[in-house]
Amino acid sequence: MAIIINPIDPVAFSVFGLPVRWYALAYIAGFVIGYYLMKYLTSRKDSEICLSKKQMDDLLTYFVLGVILGGRLGYVLFYNLSYFIANPLEIFALWHGGMSFHGGLIGVIVAAFLFAKNNNFPDKSVARNTFRILDTLAVLVPLGLGFGRIANFINMEIMGRLTDSPFGVIFIGGPQIPRHPSPLYEFALEGVALLIIMLTLYYKTNLRRYVGALSGMFCILYATFRIFCEQFRAPDAQIGFLTSWGLTQGMLLSFIMMLVGIIVLACALRKKNI
């Protein structure tokens, strides 16, 4: 028997008649909480990289631009290129939805590289400083992912495949067909479980002494959880399945991400950060 749920209004509140959506609040919460947590981690005596307040403020700007630009361009290129070629102005219509995690990840990596390149650190290696920033960020990203998946569920988007399991969800007023609540599965794995694992690796192991190791572990773990959740998530309508055996675009991108993570981790473990 399916779970019947009354939909939550995607608009949290309005300011002077302008709607403020839960999805926007999820992004804001992720950036604000992530900012203060990263400030705390980088201020610790055992931190692998120290950032001043000005550098933290600058880094937040870099990351906001990286997430938004990378996430949007990733969606355009990976998920709906033909549509946006025909409707180029829609690329800028962020309020219509359409963000890619994998694109956002690439945007964040580019942002971290540019930040490391444009700031003076004791270690003059831009690559090592980039990975030191990404290693710290890897511990915090699951928070933002968790907020985002809750917002996805509120918006009733990226819902799962049809199911007759007791976990199936039907929204009142919507199609009376039970579907897997895949955003909640992703919240549990990509958000909660990944956060716990990354915090454990950061505090209880010496992986952070190996530049790039935590970044590699994050890529491997996220890709693993995402590939698992894709078994329940409905493929994007404009793409469908890429193969007869059920490969989705999200799986393909995550396989690539996992491979990159394995390479980064292997390289990191070869040399300890002294």
Q: Can you count the helices? A: 8
Main sheet: strands, sense, barrel: 2 strands, parallel
- Give the oligomer, counting copies of the same chain as homo and different chains as hetero: single chain
What Rg do the Cα atoms give? Answer: 19 Å
The shape is globular
Task: Give the low-confidence spans.
Answer: none
| Secondary-structure element string | EEEHHHHHEHHH
Q: What count of domains describes the coordinates?
A: 1
Number of DSSP E strands: 4
Compute the separation of the termini in Å: 57 Å
The chain-level mean pLDDT equals 92
Give the DSSP E fraction (strand runs of 2 or more residues): 5-15%
Global structural class: mainly alpha
Per-chain topology:
Layout lengths: L2 E3 L5 E5 L2 E4 H22 L9 H27 L1 H6 L14 H17 L8 H29 L14 E3 L10 H23 L8 H17 L19 H21 L5
Parallel strand pairs: 1-4
Antiparallel strand pairs: 2-3
Give keywords.
single chain, mainly alpha, two-stranded antiparallel sheet, 8 helices, globular, two-stranded parallel sheet, 274 residues
